[in-house]
Protein 1
Amino acid sequence: MGAGHGHGHGPAQVAGHATHRHRWRLGASFGLIGSFFVVELVYGLVSGSLALLSDAGHMAADVLTLAAALVATKIATRPDRTGRRTYGSYRAEVFASGFAVLVMLGTAAYITIEAVGRIGRDVEVSTGPMVVVGALGLLVNLAALMLLRGGASESLNVKGAYLEVVADTAGSVGVIAAGILVAATGRPLFDTLVALAIGMFVVVRAVALGRQVVAVLGQHAPEGLDTQAVAGDLAAVGGVQDVHDLHLWTLTSGMHVATAHLVTTDAADAHAVLDRARELLRDRHAIAHATLQVEPPDHVGCDELGW
């Protein structure tokens, strides 16, 4: 005897999806940063500042990341007409976050290679444009941070963009500091050192985000969810005597999924057990999509699977 419940990815679920709710934040940030990127690139070339150029490169990574995030959120909300994507296209957002990681690492590698190549060379740096453009870039990044912060805790996609802008904000501060130090000492080495520091900071943020992306794609249990605790709560549901084949994973930000087999007692009402278990997963563990198989105590065959 088995019982289950199906869920669709219809308009109501899409409307409640974390990244979909915050898509406007991504769009507004894309407009701000995309507009300023050209300014920073031009003045980076004019001033000869590697720190400013590296920050412009990182801002280019921001633009690419935000564009990928916007495209991914659009794809994620499209209904599946092929019949093959049974979970919809929500994972597009996770792939976009993975793309953000690759862009961040590529930017950091470029910055580091250029900085190392400048060591020992006599380079002329115009500090005036550095400080002015760095200050303007800081204001733009702070505005973008305020926009993205509201969705970063709910959406991995928005968090990827947020971390990109955090790193770029630090880069703007570094550009300002480098301009002041070079102007005060006459030593362009400070420009190179700041560029290296920006590169290292970008790597740290990229690795942190990359670990989260790998956890989702590897179908690890969602962060903050204890598998043993969930199993114990299900086992404590009235009418349940055993829980096995429990699997927990994240489809995309804010969408956790669970499957489990619940073995009932002889006198248990399977439908009541199913309803109580689903309510528990939804209310206590924020798992709205659960596929549960309810089995009588004399059911056999579950131990035949070899993996």
Protein 2
Amino acid sequence: MPVIAPMPSTRPAPVPDQHEGADDSMTAGTTVDHLTETYRAHYRSLLGLAALLLDDTASCEDVVQEAFIRVHAARKRVREPEKTLAYLRQTVVNLSRSALRRRILGLKLLSKPMPDMASAEEGAYDQLERDALIKAMRGLQRRQREVLVLRYFADMTEAQVAETLGLSVGSVKAYGSRGIAALRVAMEAQA
């Protein structure tokens, strides 16, 4: 029986990647060096962002570190390195939301509420004012709170807030305006 040679393929043969196994910093997307520089430059601001959405330092640090880990793992998908910070901010906001959801679930599962811990600074005027602001912020709708935190505490522009939260600039303005009005009413009621 004669052996028939296979027909030559019309598709070109794959060219082996010269960088296969090369350093990750040579691949497309955000480089490890750029992410490292972003970490050094923006760690504290991202920590501050998380602190405004959460209420304890350990959770804030965990959220920011987890955000950097996730963006590092997905850095090849961040095609434009200048958007790395935007991805990090969005990840911090999302992880903060998740942490708050876990806390709410944990509180629902507790049989009795946790006792309040009194601190030495409890009587200080600044602490009372901060507590009143935090209480008033917690009374806002979720989107209003997120817009106000990003806009005024993280010092982001309306366009940056819109990109971070996936909203239009008009929606950011509306949530911000309504949030400030609700915050003003809540703070006056506490006074």
Protein 3
Amino acid sequence: MALGATALAAAGLLALVAPGSAQAVAAGRCAGRHVKTLVFSTGVTRVYKGNGYVCALTVPDRPGAWTTMSVGVQARGGRPVVDKGRYRYHAGPVTVYAGHRCVRVRGSVGGGSTATGWILC
């Protein structure tokens, strides 16, 4: 019963978030369809798109050890939404409402990183 109430409360909080702001997606997953994989020396950043939202998640090549990781998404004309810290399995997901605007995506694990120009226009 408590678990159901918690899930309902979380869904209610997500519904209050205005378009153009960041949303956290539970359990390290992005909604939408997979549209791009950015491979770099120490990991990958996966990009998803659906219903005007773009979501990204960075995963290390060797999960399990505490490592500095980050992932960021920026819709053109908006501020970047970034998740950065020491994680074991992934950074993110981070989600922004992009509508029909282009986005930039960045990801890093340890000393390796990736970044796009404006994509998904």
Protein 4
Amino acid sequence: MRNSATLFLLLASIIFTSCDPNRVFDVYQPVPNKWHKDSVASFNIKAPDSTNAYNLFVNLRNTNTYKYNNIFLIVEMTFPHGKTIKDTLEYKMADPSGKFLGTGLTDIKENKLWYKEQVVFKEKGDYVVKIQHAMRENGKVNGVVELEGITDVGFRIEKPSIK
């Protein structure tokens, strides 16, 4: 019975990912147990077609053990010729009632968070995107050392949807 459920989930994921014509890059890295403040998720990206613009997203998966209604992230993009852009970003993770945002039918929610839109990869070569959390609790000087409830960190590049 367990093997059939695993097979079904594998087939469903293949079907859903293969039916995504806008996806150019979509990779996740698992977070073991807790996301340490010094742990950086790093993504190496080959420059896509330099004649088109793309939308960039940070993807997070969280469980109901995540105890905050927002998240602060530091996202750094390094270009092939060495230029680096570093952003500190805040995203909502829950509505005012405490219900988690994102998609998912189980206790794991998947959040597709805007990073940049209409980006043209003008430089040929490899880009590197690094993501780490920068969470702090109100009234405390030091940041959260180990963030609970985030299970995966991902980065996505997609073609803009034509409407």
